[in-house]
Amino acid sequence: MTRIRLALAQIDTVVGDLAGNVERISRRLDEIADCDLALFPEMAVTGYPLEDLVHKPGFVADSRAAVAEVAAMSGSCALVVGFADPGPGGVVHNAVAVCHGGRIVGTYHKECLPTYDVFDEGRDYEPGSGPLQLFRVGGVRVGVVICEDLWVAGGPVGRLLDGGAEMIVAVNGSPYHQGKQAARESMVTATAAASGRPVAYLNLVGGQDQLVFDGGSMVADPAGMVVGRAPRFREAVVILDVDVPAVRSGDGDLPVVEVSGIVERGDHLVAHVVEPLEEVAELYEALVIATRDYVRKSGFSDICLGLSGGVDSALVATIAADALGPEHVHAVLMPSRYSSDHSIADALALASAQGLDAITMPIEDVHLAFAGTLATTPEGGPVGLTDENLQSRIRGVLLMARANANGWMVLTTGNKSESAVGYTTLYGDTVGAFSVIRDVYKTRVYELCRWRNTGQLGSDGRPVIPEEILSKPPSAELRPDQRDDQSLPSYDVLDPLLEAYVEGNRTRTELVEDGHDPDLVDRVVRLVDAAEFKRRQTPLGPKVTIRGFGRDRRVPIVNHYRG
Amino acid sequence: MTRIRLALAQIDTVVGDLAGNVERISRRLDEIADCDLALFPEMAVTGYPLEDLVHKPGFVADSRAAVAEVAAMSGSCALVVGFADPGPGGVVHNAVAVCHGGRIVGTYHKECLPTYDVFDEGRDYEPGSGPLQLFRVGGVRVGVVICEDLWVAGGPVGRLLDGGAEMIVAVNGSPYHQGKQAARESMVTATAAASGRPVAYLNLVGGQDQLVFDGGSMVADPAGMVVGRAPRFREAVVILDVDVPAVRSGDGDLPVVEVSGIVERGDHLVAHVVEPLEEVAELYEALVIATRDYVRKSGFSDICLGLSGGVDSALVATIAADALGPEHVHAVLMPSRYSSDHSIADALALASAQGLDAITMPIEDVHLAFAGTLATTPEGGPVGLTDENLQSRIRGVLLMARANANGWMVLTTGNKSESAVGYTTLYGDTVGAFSVIRDVYKTRVYELCRWRNTGQLGSDGRPVIPEEILSKPPSAELRPDQRDDQSLPSYDVLDPLLEAYVEGNRTRTELVEDGHDPDLVDRVVRLVDAAEFKRRQTPLGPKVTIRGFGRDRRVPIVNHYRG
């Protein structure tokens, strides 16, 4: 049994920010100086995912130089640091360098490249195919893998274990979706228990475009028990001592790179095992972090949004206030001739409870001017859906004007249910740079609001989201007495059907077999397919389900399948 | 030497339209009845590319049923028909069936799956790994491959040839970009000449979302000479007799599926060899076909667009009139207080020359109403860039209102140069469902206009695009006396720099080394990167270069790389 001191350096990197990422790593070096081994995230010096940046040979060369800088700073603690490694013939590997004593003592190239869901690694990288090796760190033979490698039967983990690895470490850029952390923990603990060797799992943290990396790094002992678990959704360095049973070396063993020997220490560091979050809390946290990171990493401090008095914009305003501080959230109320008094009152109550900046700009004058101009066309002034869309677009233009004038980012407030069926106005309520709840169904929007209301209260001592907003029937208020349930089934019926179609990839025929109402299925499937051209023009937002409307769902716009 | 009669059935399929595609194939069966072998495009029964439709097991099962329908209709002419073939464990193959005498006599699964550029086949399909076989058709041992298979050294073509194939046929869904047809022809003729065996190349035709399949199917004889070439950009069935030298069979030969024997015919059909198009004509055709197919396959007949009097909207209007007929093109002139008289006159002259529907709707009243409403904000009324964007967005709202009221599709008129540097207004001049010239640099826009003006004249006997539009300096006319060259270098300088950065994947450092002005490089690179969030929200348009702003260029929005 050898005891090694391990650091899980769960940091938030920025894509393309090579100098900044090197600096982020170097800031942690004091903290981990007394460890044997420190793990940093997948692609730590470049940020992750790089997408087509990896096809710039100049960038990849810069990545190689950046990891050399990190290596030059390394001391007695071995660092596992991800980077993009140029190979012969212009190929690139998703790689880690093991850095120690001022140099790179070895590298590993990821073998298993995910090419599904949001991942395009088969497009971007050449799979590793070199001979495997182990690194003797703190006297322990360590096998190093990257993310997907841990999940693939027949991947490198089995060969590392068969080849004499006494411990497996996996560095990850694993994005969040609901339920994923439990799946990760099962895999890590099962791998440890089956092999009788400790497994360390280090994950990236922070938002990057559509993705939210949620941290939650962990270590499982040889019995498959979690002996250390880092927090979710925030940076942390967790240091712990891991007891590693010795594995007798044999003829079939992999070559070993000698890095460092056993260090005797007087103390025994035990890690805190952070408790798992409940599902709704986890989801809320994911949305907050995604929003904060997208806004800040894009160089903005303040956002604005249209506050209608409805539940969607109420939730997005609240998330933004939690992410950025209420003083950075600018709410714009834009009532039309069809807006109800209670909507305005509810929106103002929310702004007041949370201390948001809020102003009211009625759209009537602009609406009248548009109607007058459009009345000169052969088709005459706007009526019906044209007039509903017009009101929504006027609001979009006003929001963008305020954002342009003040240097704010516009947040989009639509939910997944309405995005799915296309009950949105392109260039109207879809305007913005970040669509906070585009992967959250309407029924879940209510759950999040109710959950948030059980937490910190508003400045007036009342819930941050006024109860009136949660209790009234949803309405777009674009014509007199409009209610969502006049044109859509109730969300309790709609959302499960959407989930089966979008996440479940069921066909029309199968949905009817599943027991959904045939007429409703026909209508909903048609709506979802026809709205694809709209969704392609809407801003990205955080993926929080197994299949959002982003890189994870790539469907043709022209698509005549009606099966 | 055996002579077989071959049909190149270059048809236009529709993605997801299984019944329609079966019907499109069946309509050709009389025409090809006297042939030995007829080739239909890659994924003929499903349309191509399927993207994530392939992840619906119900759809893949329907695809299998559709190819069985085609097989049931097959007679003495063997048909090569593409489809999505379900395999064990939920995998799917990009497949062709060889159909003959009412049944499927064999299938082939594509081995080489392109996972680069616009292609995601590594995401969508399982590569074929079954044993290869040959099909004896008309007495000839034919080796069948699919698209990428032909291009990969170490792919199946070499094994088919080594295994006794007397002829290679490749069915393709190969999208157009400038210069691609010459590359295809080189590959086909080189394969034929090197092997001494004829090679038949069948390509899909028609637009699908961002892609334009350009046909240009061909046959090369064993000397590497093209003996038949189908037209580009339109459906055609080319029938020709191909003389196939016998290859002595040997021990290492692949198994042969017996399909049909030699048919003695009295005549000898020689195919027309269609002349290659010149580059600018090819590009114009591609844009016309892409527009026609996107509009019609989306269920629309008419389009509208903003006609500013500038060159971009002039070109798009002309392409739309050529694609759909001038009576289906509705031009909207939306002058502001900054619009020049000559712009309005030029736009009206173009509409008149081409017989377009055109109306004029000044935006002044709406502009004033917005200014009044925005004057109530703390930041005051709109000035500077906010006011420029406002005017553009007013036009966007007016266009969308007309489109909504009349059931038209809006076409977007921006070019690649301005899309690259972000000299566009999101939700303003970017509105629309199809962005016809988003992959065409401004310098190329002028070339296309001049080329089109040498063709069919307008109804008034003058060029379809008035010379004034081509000779005046470009301006957005969003403030007094604005000209593009006040904020951008001339397009002769800008476009090559953009091409090196976007298509060439050069870094800032490399561009300076290449001799571009360092300050200009810094500015342009920054503009291109910062505009990524805008481009993600703009409508798709036809890819016509090696790297457009679509599925072929996937870069992060949050991206701090400045190298």
Notes on the structure:
2 copies of one chain form a homodimer. Chain A has 2 domains: 2-275, 4-Layer Sandwich (Nitrilase/N-carbamoyl-D-aminoacid amidohydrolase); 280-484 and 531-535, Rossmann fold. Chain A has helices at residues 18-26, 57-73, 121-124, 156-162, 180-195, 279-297, 311-324, 341-354, 364-374, 384-406, 416-421, 442-453, 467-471, 491-502, 508-513, 518-530, 532-535, and strands spanning 2-10, 37-39, 78-86, 92-100, 103-109, 134-137, 140-146, 167-172, 199-203, 205-208, 211-214, 218-220, 226-229, 236-244, 256-258, 303-306, 329-333, 357-360, 409-412, 434-435. Chain A has a 7-stranded mixed beta sheet with strand order 13-12-9-8-7-6-15. Chain A contains 17 helices and 20 strands. In chain A, α1 runs parallel beside α2 (57-73), α6 packs across α7 and α6 crosses α12. The longest helix of chain A has 23 residues, at 384-406. With 563 residues, chain A is α/β, with parallel strands linked by helices. The radius of gyration of chain A is 26 Å and the shape is elongated. At the A-B interface, α2, α6, α9 and α10 of A face α2, α6, α9 and α10 of B.
